[in-house]
Amino acid sequence: MSKLAQQMSDYFWSGICPSSASQWDILPINNLGNGDMRIMSREIQDAFGETRSIVLSASTSVWMPVSRQKVFDFLCDAQMRGEWDVLSNGVHEMVHIAKGEGIGNSISILANSGNMLYLQDSWTDSSGSMIVYSSISMQSLSMLMNGGDPSSVPLLPSGFSILPDGHSNNNTLVETSSDGSGSSGSENDNSGCLLTFGLQMLLTSLETSKLAYESVYTINELISCTIEKVKEALGVEY
């Protein structure tokens, strides 16, 4: 599970900050009216080397006048997921695997009322915080629990990175209590952070000459709506 979570997070980062080796094509979205968003695409292939479909990856960054720890705690809370995830429905945590001293540093399996499963990887330290998630099938989960190869599990990761804004005392301290457990230290309530949200979508149909405008419009709307919901839930004025 840890290897799969790392694979998922690596794939997420390649989609919001790609290198020349990532083979993403940047799409022009001037007509969508959101100049702060970047949308890219790339082809993925099946096991036989034949093109199967196209993945869209979109991301945007906003400054939040809220402490990084508060944003991280809110986004990690499965019970609060319905406040920002427009696709969720009654999410609860099934499995929790701690992977560090700090509270929230963990790998989780989440499930919604429709029996859809999500793998979630979250981490926070003094350099920044992240929450990455992807849907995962029960078949893939069973295969993993029986010693299967994590690299064979298909993933479409989305998530958040939360970075210091560079202008405020925004470090997250990890304190160790007498029983050895970790806890997050306090932050300046007046601090802010830079929130980046990245979303990936698999297109079910291909057009040989160009991407369907509807798909680009949909991912643009999902990104914008999610950011608006996070701001609303945290009391950030538009």
How would you describe this structure to a colleague?
The chain is of the alpha+beta class and 238 residues long. It has a single domain, classed as Alpha-D-Glucose-1,6-Bisphosphate, Chain A, domain 4 (2-Layer Sandwich), CATH 3.30.530. It has helices spanning 2-16, 68-76, 138-145, 213-233; strands at 25-27, 37-45, 51-64, 92-98, 106-111, 117-125, 128-136, 158-164, 174-176, 182-184, 193-203. The strands form two sheets. The chain has a nine-stranded antiparallel sheet, with helices on both faces. Strands 9-10 form a two-stranded antiparallel sheet. The chain is globular. The protein starts with a helix and ends in a 5-residue tail after the last helix. Residues 170-187 have low confidence and may be disordered.
Features:
238 residues, alpha+beta, nine-stranded antiparallel sheet, two-stranded antiparallel sheet, HD-Zip_IV_C, DNA binding
- How far apart are the termini? 39 Å
CATH topology: Alpha-D-Glucose-1,6-Bisphosphate, Chain A, domain 4
Topology order in helix (H) and strand (E) letters: HEEEHEEEEHEEEEH
* Major sheet characteristics: 9 strands, antiparallel
Number of strands: 11
Beta-strand percentage range: 25-35%
Calculate the mean pLDDT score and round it.
79
Strand order of the main beta sheet, please?
Answer: 1-2-3-11-8-7-6-5-4
Q: What's the shape? A: globular
- Helical residue percent? 10-25%
> What structural category do the secondary elements indicate?
alpha+beta
CATH superfamily: START domain
Number of helices: 4
Question: What CATH first level would be assigned?
Answer: Alpha Beta
Q: Oligomerization state of this entry?
A: single chain
Radius of gyration: 18 Å
What's the number of structural domains? Answer: 1
What ranges have pLDDT less than 50 throughout 5 or more consecutive residues? 170-187
**Which architecture does the CATH hierarchy give at level 2?**
2-Layer Sandwich
